[in-house]
């Protein structure tokens, strides 16, 4: 075969629960909840469209014991579509879907082979000239080096090794099936399809030794594009292509509000940064954590009204037409401004606002005094009208004056309160 196409995926975690889904009006909760299934459907569609010969799933197809048989029915249905398209599938189970972790089973279609959990085995696909070597996990915690017992490469075939592993433990994941790069290379395979590490990493290039990353991010520690790796062998030489297949993109939107003086200024910065992140990421659906940071005069008002802040940010997300955006959390990591000018200005504004509040609360007293002051003018107006000298409206109507005074006080209080980063009233 002059050209062989293999699609390598891992860590699908089908039906993994999305913890902490905050339900609010308009939030695309169903899109986020079903993201692992949607990403798997995208993987199957891509395999069929690209006319690949083989799909490899290197561990953690499931996220653990099924809640019910619907998980198995969904997976079998997708594998059945690959069967109808004539695409072979080889699976190894990892720590999340080990033989001891998943007790419910459904038979897979004939195109799908699950490698043994008892020992490393070789699965021959003679029609496409491939030998796949690997082992599933017998239990959740496998701490021995499984790769040492993997069989030697088969002459005349393209040899693929499958392993769910932490590698040498330096990648920050649970120490399952540890091994060293030199040990993998010593097998003289043409490609190593690894799983367990959720960030895409090519850790070796001769031969390619690849973690494709997980197919779908599931929380804020799994940000950025997710997908699978397409391996094309041209005259037995491997060429790699990263495919982005995630249904919902996780992003951490960090907003620097340093120097912002009001709550509203912080919101403006939030919106600008949030839309920038969404534009740059280039996905159709997002789960986003928004985090405000930096010294600001508005620190107190942000922390004092976190519910309003969160809902203002959600409102921004809902206004984004054509894109599903779920706001996972809004976090404040701001601090009070240490700038002397800001501190002095803040104190002055607070003092003026306090005076105006006292002024507003004294309207009744001002009204009584105003009535006394305006009494002679009212008497003169009456006399002029009786004499027929004037019929003009009295421009000094006390109710209008007092209403104007109260409106002015309200406006000044609101303006100063906003400038000071608070909601004075």
If you had to describe this structure to a student in words, what would you say it looks like?
The protein is an alpha/beta fold and 425 residues long. The protein has 3 domains: 3-244, Metallo-dependent phosphatases (Purple Acid Phosphatase, chain A, domain 2), CATH 3.60.21; 249-338, no CATH class; 341-419. It has helices at 29-33, 35-49, 70-84, 181-185, 263-281, 299-304, 306-318, 340-361, 363-386, 398-419; strands at 3-9, 54-58, 88-92, 112-114, 121-125, 130-134, 158-164, 191-195, 201-205, 208-211, 227-234, 237-244, 249-256, 285-296, 324-336. Strands 4-3-2-1-11-12 form a 6-stranded mixed sheet, covered by helices on one side. Helix 2 (35-49) packs parallel to helix 3 (70-84) and helix 8 packs antiparallel against helix 10 (398-419). The chain is elongated, with a radius of gyration of 34 Å.
Name of the CATH first level of the largest domain: Alpha Beta
Tally of helical segments: 10
Helix/strand-derived class? Answer: alpha/beta
The CATH homologous superfamily name of the largest domain equals Metallo-dependent phosphatases
Q: Tell me the strand percentage band.
A: 15-25%
Order of helices and strands: EHHEHEEEEEHEEEEEEHEHHEHHH
Q: How many structurally independent domains? A: 3
């Amino acid at each position: 075969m002059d050209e062989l196409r293999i699609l390598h995926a891992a860590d699908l975690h089908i039906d993994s629960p999305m913890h902490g889904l905050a339900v609010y009006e308009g939030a695309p909760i169903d899109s986020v909840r079903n993201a692992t299934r949607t990403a798997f459907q995208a993987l199957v569609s891509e395999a069929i469209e690209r006319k690949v010969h083989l799909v490899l799933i290197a561990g953690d197809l499931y996220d653990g014991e099924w809640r019910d048989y619907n998980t198995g029915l969904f997976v079998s249905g997708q594998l059945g579509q690959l069967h109808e398209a004539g695409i072979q599938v080889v699976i190894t189970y990892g720590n999340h879907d080990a033989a001891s972790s998943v007790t419910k089973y459904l038979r897979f279609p004939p195109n799908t082979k699950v490698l043994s959990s008892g020992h490393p085995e070789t699965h021959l696909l003679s029609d496409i000239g491939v030998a796949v070597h690997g082992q599933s996990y017998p239990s959740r915690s496998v701490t021995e080096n499984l790769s040492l017992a993997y069989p030697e490469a088969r002459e005349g075939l393209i040899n693929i090794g499958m392993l769910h592993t932490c590698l040498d433990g330096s990648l920050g994941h649970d120490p399952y099936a540890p091994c060293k790069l030199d040990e993998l290379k010593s097998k003289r395979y043409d490609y190593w399809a690894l799983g367990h590490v959720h960030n895409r990493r090519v850790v070796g290039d001769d031969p390619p030794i690849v973690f494709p990353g997980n197919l779908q991010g599931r929380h804020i520690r799994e940000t950025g594009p997710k997908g699978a790796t397409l391996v094309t062998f041209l005259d037995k030489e491997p060429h790699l292509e990263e495919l982005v297949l995630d249904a919902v993109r996780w992003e951490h939107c960090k907003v620097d509000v340093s120097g912002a003086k009001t709550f509203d200024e912080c919101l403006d910065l939030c919106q600008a940064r949030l839309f920038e992140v969404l534009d740059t990421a280039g996905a159709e659906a997002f789960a986003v954590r928004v985090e405000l940071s930096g010294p600001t005069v508005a620190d107190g008002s942000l922390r004092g009204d976190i519910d309003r802040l969160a809902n203002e940010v959600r409102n921004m997300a809902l206004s984004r037409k054509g894109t599903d955006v779920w706001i996972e959390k809004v976090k404040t990591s701001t601090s009070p401004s240490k700038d002397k000018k800001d501190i002095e200005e803040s104190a002055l504004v607070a003092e003026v606002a306090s005076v105006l509040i006292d002024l507003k609360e004294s309207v009744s007293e001002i009204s009584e005094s105003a009535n006394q002051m305006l009494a002679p003018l009212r008497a003169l107006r009456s006399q002029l009208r009786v004499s027929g000298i004037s019929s003009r409206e009295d421009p000094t109507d006390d109710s209008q004056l007092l209403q104007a005074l109260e409106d002015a006080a309200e406006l000044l209080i609101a303006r100063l309160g906003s400038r000071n980063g608070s909601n004075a009233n």
